[in-house]
Structure formats: C-alpha cells, structure tokens
Amino acid sequence: MSAFDFSAYDPEQVRLMSEMCILVDENDKAIGAESKKNCHLMTKINEGLLHRAFSVFIFNAEGKLLLQQRADEKITFPGYWTNTCCSHPLAVEDEVEEENQMGARRAAQRKLDHELGIKAHQIPLEKLQFLTKIHYLAPSDGIWGEHEVDYIFIAQVNVDTEPSPNEVKAVKYVTKAELQELFEKAEEKGIQMTPWFRLIAENFLYKWWDNLDNLSRCAEPNVIHHM
Fold first, then answer.
1. Which of 71, 123, 143, 159 has the maximum number of C-beta atoms within 10 A of its C-beta?
2. Contact, 112 vs 142, CB < 8 A?
3. In 123-218, where does DSSP find H-type helix?
4. How far apart are CA 212 and CA 156, in angstroms?
5. How far is it, in rounded angstroms, from Cα 51 to Cα 23?
6. Which residues are catalytic?
7. pLDDT digit string, tens, across residues 114-147
8. How far apart are CA 214 and CA 100, in angstroms?
9. What contacts 165, CB < 8 A, 6 or more positions away?
10. What CA–CA distance (Å, rounded) separates 196 from 76?
11. pTM score, two decimals?
C-alpha cells in the first residue's frame, strides 16, 4: 500500500485497508481477492474491480430500524448516516463459503460486534434473513468509492449496542416515517446519507419494512438487482 499516501488518514482505518476482499463478476461468481484499499479506489473501480459486500438492517421489537452514523475516521463516506451495518466478507476460509450465504452471514456477525458491540449470541446466524443481492457503484469523494454486489440481511431482534468510536459516531432508532423525513430533509439540514442506503430505501426498504412479520414473501434469493 506504499504507492498511496495514507498520512492524512486514521492509522486504524489504514490498517483495515490491507484486509483482502472477495472479487466477483457481475453474477457474484468469486474470481479472486484484492485489498480493501484497491477495491475502494475509484481508479481501480473504473477498471471494473467489483467485490462482495453485505448490508444488515436490524429492527427492534417495535419495528424501528437501527441506524448508525459512520465515524469521522472512516476513509470512505466519513460522517454519513447509513443502515445498521455494511461491510465485506473477507477472503478467508470462514467467509468465502457460499452455501446458504454462510460466509456473508459470518462476516455480518463479526462486523456487528466490531462496529456496534452487538454480540453473536444476540444475533445468531439464523436470525439474519437473506432477502436479495444488489449490484451498485457509488463514488465517495473522487478518490474513494464503492462497487459491490451487496447481500441484504434483515433481522428483527432487540440488541444491546456499544459502538466503537473509531467506527461509529452515533446510533439511533427510527420509524419508517422518521426515516422518510430524514431522507427528504437531509440536503436542507446538511445531513449526509450513504448512497447505497438511499438506493435501497428508495427501491426496496419500505416494502420490506411493511412485511417484517413475513419477509419470505419479499425474498428474492436468486436475484441480483443491477442498479
């Protein structure tokens, strides 16, 4: 990673940039591995680099969605509000397993603890209901961006949070109406929302929200939505 000057960035976030993500084609077929840094550089994304990711949406028993505000230390989309947790399965044995999305489930469980302090016993793998996959591209600041096949997981469960300040600046629960208002007034109020969260909200989330009691009717496990 010496070819890029990371001196202006947080050391822990720089360390995480050496993690190896899973490269995929547009059909989510694994084709190799590459550093998190290269997977998020727009110069590499513009060459076609595409990696596997996940997004988790946790709702409490009242049907409110847990949001997080990304820490200012984050290299991509610092300070942005987003869904409960979004990150990447790594190119390691436990997280490359594809049957029943087990690799992505394990990665989600790992990152929920790392970012939000949500322990595995509160979010067992079987509680993560897989909905679908979304392929999208989103620049961040001209240098960094996202180009992912994103596995979508939803769980309705009460959890305890203890966010890592290096990962998460703030958390809050919102109703559907509160989230809709947040998106509507974000620009006016200077609130930044991650592009993948906005894309998922505008195209899918509210339907899922209305069917929390029977998400299987919304599941499209064999579909990749190319956005």
1. 123
2. no
3. 176-189, 195-200, 206-210
4. 8
5. 4
6. 86, 148
7. 999 999 999 999 999 999 999 999 988 889 999 9
8. 19
9. 71
10. 12
11. 0.95
DSSP 141: S
pLDDT one-digit tens code per residue, 9-61: 888 888 888 999 999 999 999 999 999 999 999 999 999 999 999 999 999 99
Query: Which tokens hold the place of 212?
Result: 């929390």
If you average pLDDT over residues 165-173, what whole number do you get? 97
Mean pLDDT of the chain: 95
**Nearby residues of 2 by Cβ (< 8 Å), 6 or more positions away:** none
For 95-127, letters b (16+ CB in 10 Å) and e give bbeeeebebbbbbbbbbbbbbbbbeeebbeeeb
| Amino acid code (one letter) for 178 | E
Give the C-alpha separation, 168 to 57, whole Å.
16
CA atoms of 133 and 123, how far apart (whole Å):
20
Retrieve residue 86's tokens.
Answer: 């979004």
Task: For strands 224-226 and 51-59, give the pairing.
Answer: unpaired
